[in-house]
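OP here, attaching both records as promised.
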Amino acid sequence: MRRPSWASPSSARWRALRPPAEAWWHLQSGTRPSYLAPETPEGESDQLVATVSNLGDATSTGQVTITDTLPTGLSAKSIEAETLEGTGGIGLNHVACSPHPLVERPLVCTVTGVAPFEAVELRIGVTVDPGAHECKQNAPDCEQNLLSVSAPGSKAVSIERPVTISEEPVPFGVEAYEVTPEEEGGSPTTQAGQHPYQVTGTLTMNQTAISHSVKGNVEGHPVALAKDLAGLLPPGLIGNPTPFGKCSVTQLDHGECPADSVIGVVTVTVNEPVSFGGLATFTTPIANMEPAVGEAARFGFFAASVPVFLSARVRSGGDYGVTLGGGDIPQVAAFLSYKLTFWGVPGVASHDNSRTQECLHETREVALGKPPLGACKPLGELSPPPFLAMPTSCSGPLITSGETDAWGHPLPEGHRLNFEETEPMPAMQGCSRLPFEAQVNVTPDGTAASTPTGLSVDVHVPQGSILNATSLAQSDVRDITVTLPEGVEVNPAGGNGLQACSEGLVGWEGFKTYEDEPGVSVASFTPKLPEPEEPGVNFCSTASKIGTVEVSTPLLPVGHHLVGSVYLASQNENPFGSLIALYLVAEDPISGTVFKALGETKLTESGQIIGVFKNNPQVAFEDATLHFFGGERGPLSTPSRCGAYKTTASFLPWSAEPWDEASETIESSSTFDITTGPKTPAYPQGSPCPGSSLPFSPSLTAGQDDHHVRELRGAVADEVNRTFQGDRQHLGVDERVADDRRRRTCRAVGLERHRQTRLMERSQSCRELLRDHEFGVFEPGLRAHSTFRVGDLEVQARPGGAARRARRRGRETGRELQGGAVGHLEGNRDRA
C-alpha cells in the first residue's frame, strides 16, 4: 500500500500552519455588446467591462491598484468604476480613476477596503479604430485586453482576454466560462486528491448593449433569456454533501438557512429594470438543500427576490463526472452572469465572515471603518469534513464545458448549445503522493466439494481519507482483476434455461475516449434505465440475470447504495467478442444515479476463471459486492477436493502514470475452505472428503426400450477429458456395454494419466464409446436403459430427439460451454 510522502497533521496543527487571512483576486474582462462593430457610429461608444473580485478570507489592506491596457484597435473615450456590494446597489467606498483625456495606457483606478466577495467594476467607453483586426469569438487571433490588480499583502494577478470585433450579429450563447480550483492565498490547486480551499466557476452570457438605460449607462442585456444552464465538471472532481446540514425551501425563502448548511457564496448579475432600475448584482451564501428525486445533490440561494436552485447529477453511463446547473431559470430578471464559489472545507473558521447574509453585510461595514455588530457567529467545528476533492489522475488536462438553451427555443438535455471553457484548468500533479489500498474477499455459499454454488466477491476500498480534510484523498480504482482458484469452474448445469443479454438491451454505446484521459477507452452506455422497464423487451431479460451487485460510496447518504444485477452477455456478440462477458447494472433510485459496467471473463487452459473490469469510473466507492446465484443452476461450482483455495486480485489506481503501472499495481488475496464432499441422500451434511485417487468404474447395461445414450457431459466427461489431456493422475476404468443382440466388453484398467500413455482399446465398442472424448461427448449410438449407473453417479439417458433439442437450445442461448451439461448427474465425484 502506498502512503503519501508527508504525514497528515492533526487538525490543530493544520489550523496553526494555515497562512494568515488575506485578500486575493479573481479577474474578469468582457465587452458590451459581446461583439464590437468594426466601425463605431459617430458620437456613440461601446463598453469594455473589467471586474476585480476579492475571493479571499480578509478585507484588502492599503490601496488596491487596478490597471487595464486596451488592445490595439480600441480607443478609450470614458471610464467609470464602482464597488458592487451585493444587494442590488452600489458600494459606498469611492473608486478613483485616471482623469480625462484618456490618452495614456494603461488606464488606472484605485480603491481601498475591498471586503471578501465584494467586487470593483470598471466600465470603459471604447470605440473601434478604423482598420482594427476582426476576429471570431474567443479565436486565438483576437487582440487581448490586459487587466491586472495589486495591493499590499496580497499577490498581484493579471489576465489577458480576447476582444471580439465582428460585423456578425451577436448569437445566443456564452461569452466566457471558467472553473478555477484555488488554494488559500489564490494559487491554483494542482495537487491531485487535494481538498482545495475553494473552487470558483464564472460564466457570462453573450450580451447586446442598451445605450439608454434607466441609470443612463450602457448596460448589457442577454441575446435571449436562458432557460437551462449547466457546467460539465471534469471526471474525478467530486463534492460530498452528506456530512453537512441541509436547508429547507422555507428556511431559504426567509434567509434562515442553518450555518452548517452553507457551503459557499454566489454573485449573480441580472438586468431587471422595474424593481432594480437595470443592472443589479447580488452576493449571497449557497446552502446545501435536500435533493429532489433524481438529483445527487441540490444547492440553493436567494437572489433578485427569487430562490434559485442548482442540481448536481452524475453523468451515468459515460465518464461519471458531475454536471452542475440550473433548469427553468426564473424569467423575472434577465440573467447575465454568475460567479459561484464552493468551499473545499466549509467548516473552517476563515469562512465564518461569509457564512450568512448578515455576515457578508457586517464584513463590508467593518471594511468601511464601522464597528462590528456581532452578527457573525463562529461555527466552531474542531475537525470540519471536506466537501470537495480534486481528481486523482495526472494523465491529462482537466476539461470542463457546458450546455445551455433559451426560453424561446428550449431543447432536451444532450441536444442543447455546447460551450467550451475560455481558460483551461490546471492539470493535476503529485499523483505518486496519493495513498492507495484495496482488498478482495471471496466466499462461496457452501463448503461442499463438487457442488453448484453461489459466490460472493467483495472489493473493499477504504475511504477514510476522503472524509479527512487534512489528508489527500485515496486514488480511485481504475482496473480490477480477480482470479478465482483453480477448481472453481463454470457449472454446466447452470446453463439450463439461462438466457443472455444483448448489447442493444443493456444500452451499450461503444468504447469512447475523452480529452482528459488521452488514449483511455471507457465503456459507454445509455445514461438511464428504460421507463417503464420491460425485461426482455427494452432491457435485459430476467432469465439472463446470474447475480446481484451492490455498491456503497461515501458520496451517497447513509443507507443509500447502488443496487442492481449481474447479467450474462451474449456469447461472442458482446463488446469483447468473447465466450463469456458480464454486464453490471445498479441504480440508486433516489439520486437517479445509474452505474453500468462491463466485465470480461477469461478462461485459462486449465479452466481457471479470471474476471477483468478496466477503466472503472473515477468515483470513490467503499465496497462493490457481486453475488452470483447459487442452487443447481448456479453459474459456478466448487472445487472437487477439500482444502484451502486462494483467490488473488490486482488493483491499478487512476493515479498510476502510464510508464509506472506495473509498480503501482497492488495485490490482494482471499482464502476459503472446502471441508466436505458433496451432499447426498446418504450424507445430507456432506459426504467424506474425496481421496487422492479418482475411481471411475461405470457399468452400462442394455435394456429393451428404444432409448439411445446420446450424450454424457459435465463432471464425468470432464474427468475423461483430463484423462486424455495428460493429467498426471490415476484413473481406473471398468466399462461394460451390452445391447439386446450380443454382449461386448470393453475394459481398460489401471490407466496412467501420463502424456505418453495411450488408451488400450479392446474392442470397436470402446473406440466408439471414447470417440468424442476431447469434447466431453459420448455418442456410441448404443441402445441402453433410460437410467444407468456410473459408479456413484446416476445418469439419465434421453431419446435422441430430446438430446438434439437440448444441444440446439444450448447453442441458441449462448450457454454451450466447454464441458457443458445435458445429461443429468447426481452423486459423488472426485476430480483433480
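Record two, same layout:
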Amino acid sequence: MSDSMGIPQSLASAGVVWMGKQMSSLRILIADDHEVVRRGVRALLASRKDWDICGEAVDGRDAVNKAKELNPDVVVLDISMPHLNGFEAARLIRNEVPQSKILILSQHNVSEMIQTALDVGARGYVSKSEVSRDLLPAIEAIIHNRSPFISQTENNGDGSFVSAHPASLESTKTGDPQLAELDLLAERNHLRELFMQLPAAIGFMRGPEHRWAFVNPAYVRAVGRKSDKALLGKTIRESLPELMGQGFFELLDEVYRSGVPFVGTEMKVNLDRGASGQPEEAFFNFIYQPVRNQTAAVAGIFVHAVEVTDHVLARRTMEKNETRLHLAQTAAQIGTWEWDPAGKNNSLSSELHHMFGTEAGDPEHAQKWTSRVMPEDMPKVQAAMQESLKTGSMEFEYRYQDPRRGLRWFYCKGRKFSQNENRLFGVVLDITERKQIAEALRNAHDELEARVQERTAELQRRTEEVSAQADLLNLANDAIFVRTLDDKITYWNQGAERLYGWRRDEVLQKAPYQILRTEFPQPFEEIKAQLLREGQWQGEITHSKRDGSRIIVASRWSMWRGPDGQPLGFLEVNTDITERKRAEEGLRTISGRLLQMQDEERRRIARELHDSAGQTLVALDMNLSSIQREAKQLSAQTLKTCSESLVLVKALSRELRTISHLLHPPLLDEAGLSSAVRWYVEGFAERSKIAVNLELDADLGRLSSECETAIFRIVQECLTNIHRHSGSPTASIRISRTPREVRVEVGDQGKGIAVQKQRNSGSMKRGVGIQGMQERVRQLGGRLEIHSGKGGTTVIAILPTESRSSDSSSPAAEVASQG
C-alpha cells in the first residue's frame, strides 16, 4: 500500500530519504510569543522520538533569523506575534529558506485567514483549539507532500466547519502542473463551445494586420459568408474587402495601437452578403476589445457584434409616422376650400364642413353657412370676396353662430394659383380661442391698471405704518432687517447696527451679500422657494461683521406680504449664537475623543483576552490532552473528569474567542477591512438568520487604521439596528472605493424609521447608535446620509481615503479659530 502521493507506507513508517535527509532526523522550529504554548507544543512533539526540536523563536523576526540559521525541515508559526506577524514571517522564510515547510498554528478559525496562510506558502493550518488532535497528523501530511492540511472545528457562526482533513483547493500553488494544464485546456474548450453557441457574432483577430483566429457561426452569418473558411487565416482586409472606405479598418488600427476599446452603437455598414458585388445596408451594435498577452502588450482584438438593422429601420418608419401625425395634429383646426366664381366645382374639405356644422351631401349647405354668418359681418365678407375677383386674393375675419358650439371666430385667407385661373384656393382657421385670449388680455390689462393705482395708494399708506412700527423694532436686542424680493435692504434696526457694526444709512438699498458675505446651509433659491410656499424659514447661517470677523447666527425669516396676500419681501431676525456653537464644537471634539478611546480600550481588552486567557486555555488544553493520553494509568473517573474538562476548555476557548473578536476582530489589524467585514457578516447571518448580500470592491485594499475601524463599526451598528428594529428578512452591504473616497452603503427592506424620528434626525434626540456613526464619520472628514421610507432604510457613509480632521471644515471651527 502507498499514501496519497504514491510513497509506500512501509517505507514512510520506517524512515526514508526526504529533502536529502533521513526521516529519522526531522528537524522542527517552533515560533510563538507565549512560553506556555511553546511548552505545550514541545510536549506533544515529544511523543515522536524520530523528530527533533532544533530551536524556538519568540517573535516573527526571531523566527526568520533562526530559520536561516538552523535550516529546519518544518517551521511551526503562530500568526499574532510582535515585530512580524506569522504571515509576513512565512513570506520571508519561503524566500530565504525555500526547502523549509511551514505550518501555521493559530487561534483564529476563519476562512480568510486560512486562505491567506496558503497564499503565503504555508503547507498546513492547525487551530490551537484542536492542536492536541491535529498537530501530529498535520506534520505527517507536510513531510509526505500531501495536500495542504486544514484544521477545522464545529461551526460556531464564525466561519469554521466540522472535522479536519487535507484541503483540495482549485487554486493551490502545489498542484500537479500537468493536471492544471489539462484543466486549463478543458476550460478553454468549454469557452470555445460557449462562443460557438452564442447568438451574437463573436470573433478574434491576431496581430496588427488583424488576421482572423476565431469566428463563431453567428459571425459568419452576419457578414454573409458561406463558412468560416472564408475568414479564418485571412486578414480582415482580405476577407471583407467591401469595408474599405467605411472607417472600420482605421478603427481596428487605432484600437490595436492605443489599447482602448471601441463601442459602436447602431453603426451603419455596407456588406456584400449575397456575393453579388452590390453591398446591402445593415446596422450593428459592436465592441472592439483589445486582448493583451502576458507582457500586457496588445496581441489581438476581440469582436462582439449584434445586428440591429430591423430595429433601426422600424424606428425610422416610426419617426416618419410621428412626423405625419404631428403635421395632422397641427392642421386639426384648419379647413381648406375651393371657390369658382362661375359657380362650378366649388368644394369644402371635410374638416371645413365639420367647422361649419354642415354636411357635404346637403345641397343647402351654402344657404346654411350664409344664414349663420353674423349679420353685422356679412357685408365685410361679401366685399372681400368681390374684391378678390380683381386682386386675386382675399383675407378677412368674421363671426359665425354655430348651432352646437355657439359663437365662433373664423379667419379666411385665399388666392389664385395663377392669373390665368378664376378659381381661388384657401384655408379657414378657427381663431375663437385666440380671440378669447386677446379679449381676456385686454380685460386683464384694464383691471391691472386699476389695481396698480389702488396698490400705489395702499403702499403709500403701508409705508407710513411701517415707518411708525420700525421705531418699535429698534428696541429689540436681535438684529432685524427687511429685504425685498429683488434682494435689496429696506430696513435695518439698531440691533443690526450693534451686531454687525454697519450703520443704517450705509446698508439701505444694498444687497445683503455685499455687506454680510452670507454662507447659507442650502442654496438661497431653495430658501426663497420655501418662503414663498410656507411663509417662513429658519436655520443657522454665517455672516461677516464690519471688522471682518465671522459670526454664526440663528436666523428666522418670515414672508412680508401686502393686504392682498402678494409677497413684498422678507423679514429677517438674527440672534448671535457664536459662543454656543463654539461650546458645541468643543463637545463634538470630546465626543470624538471618547469614541477613539472606546475603540482603543476594546482593542486592548481583546488583545489581553487573546494574549493571557486565550493562551492559558490553549496550554491547559494541551496539558489535559497529555494527561488523557495516559489513559491506562488513570482511573475511569479521572479519565471521565479529564474528558469533561477538555470539552469545557474548548467551549470556553470558543466563547472567549467570540467575545474577543466582537470587541475587536484581529482580522481588522492583520488581514484588513475586507476579511473582517466578511467574517462579521457571516457570523451575523448565522446568529440572526438574516440573509446578507455583501459586495466588496475588488480594489478596496488597505485603508488607515482609523478609517477601517470606523467602517467596521458602522457596518456593525447598522446590522444590529436591522436585527433589532427593522423586521427585515434581508440586508445588503456595499463597500466601494475611488481614488478620493470610500463609500459604505447598508440597506434593508424593513419598516423604515418613524416619521417623527426622521424629523428629529438633525437634533440631539436621535439614537445613540446614529450619533456614534455620525461622529465617527465627522471625525474623519466624511458625511453620513440616512434615507428611510416604506421600502426600508439605507445608511450611506462617505469617507475620504486620506483621513483628515473635520475640525477645520465646520463654520463653528472657523469662527473658533478667529476667537
